[in-house]
Every structure is written in structure tokens, then in C-alpha cells.
Amino acid sequence: MEEWRFLELEFPSDPAMNLAIDEAVLNSVLEGCVLPTLRFWRNDRSVIVGRFQRICDEVDLDLCAKEGISVVRRMSGGGTVYQDLGNLNYTIVLTDEHRLIKGLGITESYKVLCSWLQRALKLVGLNPEFKPPGNILLNGKKISGSAQLRRRGGVLHHGTLLVNADLNLMKKVLKAWRDDYKGGVIASINMPVTNLVNELEVEIDLNELKEVLKWSFEQTFSAKLIDGKLTNSEKFIAEKLYKERYSRDSWNFSR
């Protein structure tokens, strides 16, 4: 059974650092220094903007400033998302030569790399549906979305699971929910959303949910998750990326 590194590493109050860590892990996997990696993490109240989006088209910046909501741009494409501690984020990092996605197109790779999450939702009694490019729906409502960054043969696939997020605040902060939304060259997709807690109608213990997710990942991909830590090199790269990119207004508000 193939071994994967598992990282449970998060900086909820600093979304910029969370994104810097993701990119540092991608660099490390590309260099062949670490195993393919699965990471769980969360952001506190924040808006994460897609790489190529115009921030003024997507985000109510005045409301974000008033509510103390961080705004950070990620390296991967796709639409803008709102996150808080009711979201559980995951990151999968591997090479495009890995057995799971070797020879697959981007659309097919999304389907594979979302399949473990679909299986986990089935395990708790739900009926998830995969909707390209990287969304998972329950009864027509989005509960998970994902995006990818591809670089020199490496693939960073990261997504979120809505567990108990503040959907009302999300709809106020993101302009995609407004009737007059036009979006830019890369527009966000407005579709009905739901929380896992609302679908199950029970309280959810986050640690128990993580165990279900880990089990599903291992069973779906014939993998064994090994608890790990960032290497010294990854820490150095993450700090560098944080200082030079993700924490800077020149990056986050460049469009």
C-alpha cells in the first residue's frame, strides 16, 4: 500500500500563511523531497480570490474591512470563495505522473481527486453528485468546491467542505450573489449552497469527521496516511512566499 504524508497544519488567523504552505508543499513534492501529501486546514473569516480574478468585481471590500474579513489571492484559478472556521479545507499534492492521475486530462483528474470526498459523504448517509469542474452537490446544492494549480509536472488540488459555515455572511461578502453581478474575465459561479450540519441535521464533531475523511481517502486510493510535518526547506519556502507574495497588497489586490 502506497504511503502518503498527512499534514494537519493550519494557521486559521493567517490565511496568507495557509496558502504559502500549500505552494511550499507543491515545490517540495516537485523536487521529490517528500511523499505525495494530504493536508487538512482551516481559515478564519476570509475571502480567497482566484488567481486571475478582478477583486473589485468579486468582493465587497467595504464590508470586509468593516467586519475584519481577510482578503487573500491564491495561485490556483477558479472563483472567489468565502471561508470561516465552519469550512474544512483539504490539499492534495502529487505529480502528474502519479498512478492516480497519470494520463488523465484536467477534468478527469478533478473527478478522481474529488472521489474520496464523495465516498466519505456516502459513508455518513448522503447522496453526493460530482459536478465538473470540481464541485460536489447534495440535492442540487454545493457542499464542496475545488481548484488546481499545475506547475512543471506537479499538481496542487485544494478544496473545501462546508461543515457549518456562515452562509448568510458569505452571500453578503461575495458579489456573485447579487442580482447585478457581472463578474470579470474569470467569473465566480453562483449556485445554491448547503452545510453538512444542515444535511445531516445533527451536531458534527470535527475530529470525528476528519477520521472519516482520512479513512475514505485511504480506502479510495489504496493509500496509507503517515502523520508528518513540514520539512525545514518547506518552512523556509513558506516564509519566503508569505513575505514576498501572499501577505502583500501588491499581490492580493493586483487586479
Biggest sheet features:
8 strands, mixed
The low-confidence runs, each spanning 5 or more residues with pLDDT under 50, are: none
Average pLDDT score? 95
Beta-strand fraction estimate: 25-35%
Q: What is the global morphology? A: globular
Structural class: alpha/beta
Number of helices: 9
Over the alpha carbons, how many angstroms does the gyration radius reach?
Answer: 17 Å
Q: Secondary-structure element order, as H and E?
A: EHEEHHEEEHEEEEHHHEHH
Number of E strands: 11
Kindly report how far apart the N and C termini lie.
45 Å
Relative helix content: 25-40%
Q: How would you summarize the topology of this molecule?
A:
Blueprint: E1 2-8, H1 15-30, E2 37-41, E3 46-49, H2 55-58, H3 61-67, E4 70-73, E5 81-83, E6 87-95, H4 106-123, E7 128-131, E8 135-138, E9 141-151, E10 154-162, H5 167-173, H6 196-200, H7 206-221, E11 223-227, H8 232-246, H9 249-252
Parallel strand pairs: 1-2, 1-11, 3-4
Antiparallel strand pairs: 2-6, 3-5, 6-10, 7-8, 8-9, 9-10
Helix pairs in contact: 1-8, 4-7
Structure description:
The strands form two sheets. The chain has an eight-stranded mixed β-sheet, with helices on both faces. The chain has a three-stranded mixed β-sheet with strand order 4-3-5, with helices on one face. 42% of the residues are buried. Strand 8 (135-138) and strand 9 form a beta hairpin. It has helices at residues 15-30, 55-58, 61-67, 106-123, 167-173, 196-200, 206-221, 232-246, 249-252; strands at residues 2-8, 37-41, 46-49, 70-73, 81-83, 87-95, 128-131, 135-138, 141-151, 154-162, 223-227. Helices cover 36% and strands 25% of the residues. Helix 1 packs across helix 8 and helix 4 (106-123) packs across helix 7. With 255 residues, it is an alpha/beta fold. The radius of gyration is 17 Å and the shape is globular.
